[in-house]
Amino acid sequence: MLRLASSWVWDFWTADDGDRYHLFFLKASRALVDPDRRHWRATIGHATSTDLSSWTEHADAVLPDDSPAFDDLATWTGSVVHQDDGMWRMFYTAVSRAEGGLSQRISSVVSADLFTWHREPGRQVLVPDPQWYETAETRQWPDQAWRDPWVFRDGETWHMLITARANHGDADDRGVIGHATSPDLTAWTVQPPLSRPGAGFGHIEVVQTVNVDGRPVGLFSCLGPELSRARRGDDPVGGIWAFPTDTLAGPFRTEESYRVTDEHLYVGRLVEDRAGRWQFLAFRNDDGHGGWVGEITDPQPVAWIDGRLTILEGSALARS
Question: What percent of the chain has pLDDT over 70?
Answer without folding.
Answer: 98
